[in-house]
Design a protein that fits this description.
6 helices, single chain, mainly alpha
């Protein structure tokens, strides 16, 4: 699974935990554990070994969403010292139909800023140099 997608989904899970805690739907201890667990994933820890599910799958991406929930649950339980449930806590108020497309959009935005925009700026510089070398009349 692309690392940028995994990291984007981790960011989404963290944001959902924060909002669910503010709404009183998620205990603070579990919300903090989810935030810490997802921060580890965003930092690149656990990405290669913990996400074996192929990006090419059928349906709405439930396998991917549940894979993330289980990984965050396991890490969060270790951090909190008490159960962080994959569905009741990590996936609180979420659906694969929403988390997977939202994660794709977040990943696209992050990768656009990280890779596409710098490449476009470099191309523009090269084109400007080339235009100066050959002149505008060519």
């Amino acid at each position: 699974m692309p690392e940028s997608f995994v990291k984007a989904m981790a960011l989404l899970k963290s944001a959902c935990a924060e909002v669910n805690c503010r709404l009183g739907l998620l205990p603070e201890k579990q919300a903090n554990a989810i935030a810490q667990a997802t921060a580890e994933i965003v930092d690149g820890k656990h990405v290669q070994e913990a996400f074996p599910v192929s990006i090419f799958q059928t349906g709405s991406g439930t396998s991917t969403n549940m894979n993330m929930n289980e990984v965050v649950s396991t890490l969060g339980t270790r951090i909190a010292g008490e159960k962080v449930h994959p569905n009741d806590h990590v996936n609180c108020s979420q659906s694969s139909n929403d988390t997977v497309p939202s994660s794709m959009h977040v990943a696209f935005c992050l990768e656009s800023h990280r890779r596409l925009l710098p490449a476009m700026k470099a191309s523009r510089r090269v084109l400007c140099i080339a235009l100066n070398l050959i002149g505008p009349e060519s």
